[in-house]
Amino acid sequence: MTVLHTLNLILRPCCPLDAPDFIALERDAEVMRFLNGGPVDHDNVDPDSVTFLMPRGHEPHVWTALRRVDGAFVGWFGLFPEGGGLAELGYRLRRDHWGKGLASEGAMALIDWGFGHAGHDRIIACTMTVNQGSRRVMEKTGMTHERTEFPATPVPVAGAEKGEVWYGLSRDRWAARR
């Protein structure tokens, strides 16, 4: 992994010192609303037993996002190889950084890196159908809706009955947009 720079962000490989910031994200009810239905109870939840990523700073495909201007923690982004040239994009940002274009900016940086340097042929991402903010991020990066699934959810989350949407982008479509 390499350090990525955008207009407003520095994305660097995560490290164990990031764990308190990652945990603070998981304790925010709004940040976790579409993943867990609310904040994570760290006294009773094992990060290895949940269906969503709870990074602790040792994950090989997670970048910590910092504001370029002052180094403040913004959130994290991940690009997870799935095999066969496929990778899955993920991200989580602090609420005070929502609505500023930073999620799209960071996601686009990872998509560019994934196609331009990591050799991925296709990048996908998913979110709950009702998570309009995340869907807009995917669309701004050039991803298009490919399917909606209705998986069983272990934790009842409001809106889960509307399913999860999957978006994708091929290397060819990415190259044509550049």
What can be said about this structure in brief?
With 178 residues, this protein is an alpha+beta fold.
Keyword list:
GNAT_dom; 24% helix; Aminopeptidase; 178 residues; acyltransferase activity, transferring groups other than amino-acyl groups; 29% strand; alpha+beta; 5 helices; globular
Descriptive report:
- GO terms for molecular function: acyltransferase activity, transferring groups other than amino-acyl groups.
- Keywords: Transferase.
- This is N-acetyltransferase.
- Residues 9-172 form the N-acetyltransferase domain.
- The chain has helices at residues 19-26, 29-32, 102-116, 132-140, 171-177, and strands at 4-5, 9-13, 62-67, 73-83, 86-93, 122-128, 144-149, 164-170.
- With 178 residues, the chain is of the alpha+beta class.
- Strands 1-2-3-4-5-6-8-7 form an eight-stranded mixed β-sheet, sandwiched between helices.
- The model has no long low-confidence stretch (mean pLDDT 91).
Mean pLDDT: 91
Helix count, DSSP H or I runs of 4 or more residues: 5
Morphology call = globular
N-to-C CA distance: 23 Å
Tell me the Rg in angstroms. 16 Å
Structural class: alpha+beta
Corresponding CATH superfamily: Gcn5-related N-acetyltransferase (GNAT)
Strand order of the largest sheet: 1-2-3-4-5-6-8-7
Beta-strand portion reads 25-35%
Report the CATH architecture.
3-Layer(aba) Sandwich
* CATH topology heading: Aminopeptidase
**CATH class identity:** Alpha Beta
Number of strands: 8
**What is the makeup of the main sheet?**
8 strands, mixed
The H/E string reads EEHHEEEHEHEEH
- The share of residues in helices is 10-25%
Low-confidence stretches: none
State the domain count.
1
